[in-house]
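Lab meeting notes turned into a lecture example. A postdoc, R.K., suggested we walk through two folding results consecutively so the class can see how the record format repeats. The first protein's sequence and structure tokens come next.
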Amino acid sequence: MKYVIIGNSTAAVGAVEAIRRNDRNGRIVIIGNEKYHVYSRPLISYLLLGKTDEERMKYRGDDFYSTHQCELKLGRTAQKIDVEQKCVILDNGETESYDRLLLATGSSPVVPPIPGLDKMEKKFTFTTLDDARALEEALFEGARVLILGAGLIGLKCAEGISKKKVEIICVDLSPKVLSSILDDQSSEMVRKHLEDHHIRFYLGRQVTGFEGYTAVLNDGTQIPFDVLVLAVGVRPNISLLRDAGGRTNRGILIDDHCRTSIPDIYAAGDCCESLDVSSGETKIMALLPNAYMQGECAGMNMSGVDYVFDKAIPMNAIGLFGKHIITAGTYKGDTYFESDGEHFKKLFYSDNKLNGFILIGNIEKAGIYTALIREKTPLDTIDFELICQTPGLMAFSRETRAEKLGGVVNVSVSSPIGISCAE
């Protein structure tokens, strides 16, 4: 059996590790358009901040490819899938045949069609290691950095360059920061925290054009700057499957086995749409834990084991200037809310289940809330009042505690053993 994986990514790692559980002898070929060992993309802001280095950014150790017997074709771009011949055509004209193919192609930054943008040299996106390197090289003491986008990417970029002695200005069409993951109350709390760290915001406004290195906003405001960062969003890389005749929407459409509509072609990660079990909607969830688990699901099925991943939920964990934020699920239903100005907790629930949560500051027991959402745990089977105030396994029934503790009940429980908090 020959497995070809397009994308040297988190999803690819999940697939490789799953394949090797079941098939020690099949060939695995990884095609990646970057030249680097697989690394954790969310860490590029910490690289600029000086909190990590390129060695510690690696998502797996140096021996990952050799241990798992992977053949690498890095610095190469897959341009076309020939479904009839079951092969992938690369940018250098080479072809790579496959028995099973995984698309782990990720997403690409959106570059908005703003007048004057094409004439600018010092403009950067912020999703790859090369992006971070290029941006760092362009910065200088006293530089005015304009970031378009006050979402996850834009704000992590702001934190990453915050110690470079630069001025940071952030513009976003939304009237609030992190609008994709926070509600009004939590967003306001985070905005004030960011302003305390000298980030200047123009919210509810957009850039209508550039006159040299001056941004003109829709209300007439003019913002001079030296360096521009585009962080307005990402777009799933779906063209390979779409051009091959596969079913796509905004993302590649997959089932709960991570199969696409074309036989022997699978997809996983940021390029896909999948079912959000917290809302019942199919959507793009560009999240590292989901990417790994989808890759794992694809790898299991590619190597002949029937395997389902049907517990995907929107989930984000981010730290900004020492303030930790974890969110998950969907924000609908009744709410439990508490905040003391430094810490923030809001839980959303209805129909006897937890739908979602927002935690800021104290995030220690987020894994318990995440597990409740994923498993759709009936709230009348737990002490939900206790879970709201002081999450811990003691809020669960004796039988559930026994299951999560591997059959051991008579122990002192101070942490959610058996529930992943790393997510």
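The second example is placed directly after the first for contrast:
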Amino acid sequence: MAFELPPLPYAQNALEPHISQRTLEFHYGKHHAAYVTNLNNLVKDTPLASQTLEEVIKSVAGDASKAGVFNNAAQVWNHSFYWQCMKPAGGGLPTGDVASAINAAFGSFDKFKEEFKTACVTQFGSGWGWLVAADGGLKISKTANAELPMTAGQTALLTCDVWEHAYYLDYQNRRPDYVQMFLDQLVNWDFVAANLKKS
């Protein structure tokens, strides 16, 4: 069964004015779609074709001969996860268990935002900023290119895509403004809460 491009959880114009329809047309419709196509081409007629996306990622991680498979599979997963991390009229303050876990780990929500933004902004080149569950608490991490927390045994709760194609049409070189907007206007805390329950 071929891997498929999952539908966006909202219309392509639903995140405006924060992320434009034009950005989603390219980011989802071209970049994400290309990773799906490339992955299917790379695993066709191999045992990997019958595995789940997570199984593929874990089975080829660290294998230099399978770097192309890993990069495309991980980017399919990362993008599918990232779209869920946002919603129209998102942002604001988390509540319940997420708020408690953030306060326990970082001291305050403002401190969490500061550390998350720093991780995203200081990720050199392309990559991702993450809030993860690990070792019984929450941590912030950043990964380069297609790397992702699951290969380090961590559970992803939230991610911000800091590849330039995620923001350049709308924010040009202003990555800090994009990350600030993501936190203030788009974060889907319900999705974060659901991930925390599963961690």
